From TrEMBL:
This is Ribosomal RNA small subunit methyltransferase I. One of its GO terms (biological process) is methylation. The gene is rsmI_2. InterPro entries: 4pyrrol_Mease (IPR000878), 4pyrrol_Methylase_sf (IPR035996), 4pyrrole_Mease_sub1 (IPR014777), 4pyrrole_Mease_sub2 (IPR014776), rRNA_ssu_MeTfrase_I (IPR008189). Keywords: Cytoplasm, Methyltransferase, rRNA processing, S-adenosyl-L-methionine, Transferase. One of its GO terms (molecular function) is methyltransferase activity. SUPFAM superfamilies: Tetrapyrrole methylase (SSF53790).
Length: 258
């Protein structure tokens, strides 16, 4: 057996990031991230990420709470290809195995997205899949996950739910998709969860209020874990009556159901 073959493989850690990415203010990391996760992240020196710049900024925040194993500048950071961001990497077309060379050489690695849990509503599933295929142990660390926080805050069915990603941008296609999801939710009781980029949140909320039936429950959570965190859940008719003013410039999660 060669020395290379006898080298124990490193592990792949799925490292959550705070939900304030792209926001004007940041929540203190110690308030939203378990210290065990911070300590685990501080020990890592090899990373796969969406964006190296935002990853370095995150590691700087980690280093303010826990000494890093090496400086931010010395961290080995690899970015997922841009086409993976745009088209997703859950269909099996992208081979992420080359990104895990450091783990095969014995280094523990971290997978991080720009907000929340990597590979959940963010790219990274190809890296996790590749790790399993290569016999690399995958360890998911605890931290904030906007989809689950929004679902828990919604009052909707938390035992049967589906995350459907983004809705179409074209108005006609978007309305049709809303009606499809509403029909499924009302027929089966399964909560339907979806997201949008902040600058389209206002348009999406307007489309939901215009398209959903009055007896369909709509829940919206904005800026989860932030100082301006906001959640509201009511029948569509109740939304129209009370006319709440959510902070739609913040990241938001939408849920519909009964």
């Amino acid at each position: 057996m060669t020395a290379a073959n006898s080298t124990p493989k490193g592990k792949l850690y799925l490292v959550p990031a705070p939900l304030d990415f792209g926001c004007n203010s940041q929540t203190p990391l110690a308030e939203v991230m378990p210290m065990e996760t911070v300590r685990a992240a501080a020990l890592l020196t090899h990373w796969v990420c969406e964006n190296a710049k935002s990853t370095r900024a995150y590691l700087k925040r980690v280093g303010e709470l826990q000494p890093l194993a090496c400086t931010v500048q010395e961290q080995k950071i690899q970015e997922l290809p841009r086409e993976v961001h745009k088209k997703g990497d859950h269909n099996g077309n992208f081979d992420a195995r080359p990104l895990l060379a450091a783990a095969l050489a014995g280094h523990d690695m971290g997978l991080v997205s720009e907000a929340g849990m990597p590979a959940i509503a963010d790219p990274g599933s190809s890296v996790v899949r590749a790790a399993h295929d290569l016999g690399i142990t995958v360890v998911a660390l605890g931290g904030p996950m906007s989809l689950m926080l929004a679902l828990a805050s919604s009052g909707l069915n938390g035992q049967s739910f589906a995350f459907v990603g983004y809705l179409p941008q074209e108005s006609g296609e978007r309305a049709q998709r809303i009606r499809e999801l509403e029909s499924l939710a009302l027929k089966t009781g399964q909560t339907q969860i979806f997201i949008e980029t902040p600058y389209r949140n206002t348009v999406l909320l307007g489309a939901l209020l215009q398209t959903l039936h009055g007896n369909t429950r709509l829940a919206l959570s904005c800026g989860l874990t932030l100082e301006k965190s906001w959640s509201f859940s009511a029948l569509t008719s109740g939304w129209k009556k009370s006319k709440p003013t959510p902070p739609l410039d913040l990241p938001a999660v939408f849920c519909i159901g009964r």
